[in-house]
Amino acid sequence: MAKRRRKPKLPNYPVRASIESLSHDGRGVTHVDGKAVFVDGALPGEEISFFYTARARRHDEGRVCEIFVASADRVEPGCAHFDICGGCSLQHLAAARQILSKQQILLDNLQRIGQVEPERVLDPVTGPVWGYRNKARLGVKHVIKKGRVLVGFREKRKPYIADIRRCEVLHPSVGERLEELAQLIQGLDASARIAQIEVAVGDEHTALVFRNLDPLSAADADMLVDYARRTELHIYLQPGGEDSVQPLWPQQPVLSYHLPDYAIEMRFLPLDFTQVNPAINQPMIRQALDLLDLRGGERVLDLFCGLGNFSLPIARAAGRVTGVEGGAGLVQRARENAAHNGIENVDYHVADLSQDLSGQSWMQPGYERILIDPPRSGAQELVPQLAGLQAGRIVYVSCHPGSLARDAGVLVNDLGYRLEAAGVMDMFPHTAHVESMALFVKPG
């Protein structure tokens, strides 16, 4: 029987180090005896001491013990729970420096992974850095040892729900109510059977989807309805999968956000994918349309179109738009949004964009412009198939710089496009998440 490998013993004394750079997840990077160490709470240029928290074959981990020389970009975190909560990783770094660091991460990824460089770097798209988050999934746990219910994000690099009372990055309609929600759930008969709360904030209403693992008693349902009426929060229950979500109060809720530049109201369901940060979403759409350079008669293909966040504004400026998305529910919402806003020059299709698309009726030459807004995994299977469409411009909206860089390498080095421009958008301030946009242009 093979012996179980023992975990390396961690030194119980602080180690002094100089921080060289920032990792992709917001930790300071140093080297001790030639081995990389990722240090929570440290910033580039700082002289610190740290305690080891974990050791592995390729790298070690640590947390700051003492700061001897602080970075000029270090600031006081705006949240009292920053040290324990895993929802944010960069509150100790000035917001203006955060977005510049993300810009450098994007450029480094493009060069290292894709072997490409943009001809110009777009100015960062920025907005408010507190109370910006309109979508979130909050964990719920009745912790017997603490004698109470916790509602919030998980602890940094731990599976436990962080003991927090409020959240400064969530929309205030929820961020200021975490303690209140915890007390509400604690008073329910089913307090140990509520697993999470999905948060979705529209322009006029905030929805909370309670994931109830067991059916609620009549008394519990009455308590939730009473709370909803008092706070004017919309409350839904989710006893099973996503298709089991039903409103508890009010009976016929409507969630929506507006895109005033295009006279569009976007309606959505609380579990639908929508952009987290509405203050960034609007200038992001404007930038995408600017890069598409629409003159009024173009045919545009919007891939991973969701519920129409890009395709409906594009339709206001283009000749015809075709939107494609893998989720039938989102496509249905996109069609409904088109009808709701009186937009007739758009059509939508359901398709798995990771598969061979050559047999699809819409996958034919004739598009002058393409917009791609894929998930974190990017569009690796899709991008090579764009060659036959011969679109003059492709705008790629990305939520992961590594997958964008990989796909950019194919577009430039294999398909002959130029990477004319790329830049970042501060969709998730105080986190290490990098949202970006790139423009690819076909020469000739």
Mean pLDDT: 96
Helical proportion, percent range: 10-25%
How would a crystallographer describe the biggest sheet?
A: 8 strands, mixed
As laid out across the biggest beta sheet, the strand order is: 7-21-22-20-19-16-17-18
CATH T-level fold name of the largest domain:
Rossmann fold
The geometry reads as globular
> SSE order in H/E notation?
EEEEEEHEEEHHEEHEEEEHEHEHEEEHEE
Poorly predicted regions are none
**What is the CATH superfamily label of the largest domain?**
Vaccinia Virus protein VP39
- Total helical elements: 8
Which structural category fits the helices and strands? alpha/beta
The fraction of residues in strands falls at 25-35%
Q: Output the radius of gyration.
A: 24 Å
**CATH C-level label of the largest domain:** Alpha Beta
Describe the structure.
The chain folds into three domains: 15-74, Nucleic acid-binding proteins (OB fold (Dihydrolipoamide Acetyltransferase, E2P), Beta Barrel), CATH 2.40.50.140; 98-128 and 256-265 and 277-441, 3-Layer(aba) Sandwich (Rossmann fold), CATH 3.40.50.150; 135-201 and 206-253, OB fold (Dihydrolipoamide Acetyltransferase, E2P) (Beta Barrel), CATH 2.40.50. Helix 1 crosses helix 8 (401-413). 21% of the residues lie in helices and 29% in strands. The model has no long low-confidence stretch (mean pLDDT 96). The protein starts with 14 loop residues before the first strand and ends with a strand. The strands form four sheets. It has an eight-stranded mixed β-sheet with strand order 7-21-22-20-19-16-17-18, with helices on both faces. Strands 1-5-6-4-3-2 form a six-stranded mixed β-sheet, with no helix packed on it. The protein has a six-stranded mixed β-sheet with strand order 9-8-10-11-12-13. With 444 residues, the protein is α/β, with parallel strands linked by helices. Strand 8 (135-143) and strand 9 form a beta hairpin. The protein has helices at 95-112, 172-175, 178-186, 218-231, 278-292, 311-317, 328-340, 401-413, and strands spanning 15-18, 21-22, 28-32, 35-40, 47-55, 59-69, 120-121, 135-143, 148-152, 194-201, 206-212, 234-237, 246-249, 255-259, 264-268, 299-303, 320-325, 346-350, 369-372, 393-398, 418-425, 435-441.
